[in-house]
Amino acid sequence: MRKSPIILIILVIIGVLGLSSIFIVDERERALVLRFGRVVDVKETPGLAFKLPIFDEVVRYDDRILSIDVQPLEVTPLDDRRLVVDAFARYRIADLNQFRQAVGTGGIPVAENRLDSILRAETREVLGSVSSRDILSSDRAALMLRIRNSAIAEARALGVTVIDVRLKATDLPQANLQATFDRMKAEREREATDERARGNEAAQRVRAQADRTVVELVSDANREAEIIRGEADAERNAIFAEAYGADPEFFEFYRSLSAYEQALQGGNSSLVLSPDSEFFNYLKSPSGQGGR
Questions:
Q1: Is the pTM of this model over 0.70?
Q2: Strand boundaries in the chain, DSSP class E
Q3: Between these two residues, 263 and 47, which has the higher pLDDT value?
Q4: In whole angstroms, what is the distance from residue 120 CA to residue 142 CA?
């Protein structure tokens, strides 16, 4: 009867040791079995696994694709136009043994800190070898691929594989935004001034052509008018000459009436004439004929 408690205690100890020797590997993770800090087993398949109780320690690592945001950094492309680059990367732990040796007990935080340094260095090197136009263009997939390929080789020492690198944003530094805005504004104002100057030049040409056309048209019209006026005067003089030759007395009478009409209009200056002036020959003649 006295042995029963001892047996029960032994069974409990055996049960506890048995349970502590069993662990489950989730399908989303992989595990390392460490004995006194040294790797003795790698569990890469999900399910039940065994270890030595008390002596062995299980360290679990995420087997999924992980993401890391690279700290923003300034790069200087070939055209010396500084840019602030914001990027992220996706990676996965490929070699648990190598990963453990590289980061020790620090785990993923230490690995991501070192991976951030690698990505920043490769991003600065790749983007520094091209112009800002290439970086800011929509077709920059080749640049991201170059950064990823360069980071893969460097990250292999950490036991991780870089799957993808993406540039989230490429902006000008805050200190340069106002200067860039002012430069863009000055360029647009210069272009506007050039356009206005070209417009004024074109307007001057149109006005000069219009003025020249007006002068030519007026000159042609005046020339034609003078020709017509000359022909009319010649025709009028011919008619007068013919009328004068046909009846000189009537022609002289007509000219006297015209002179009266012009001289005796209201508003003209006063005329002081003697009554026997030749101007009144037709007025004094009872028959309307001028005196001889």
A1: no
A2: 22-25, 29-35, 38-43, 47-50, 56-62, 66-75, 83-93, 160-171
A3: 47
A4: 17
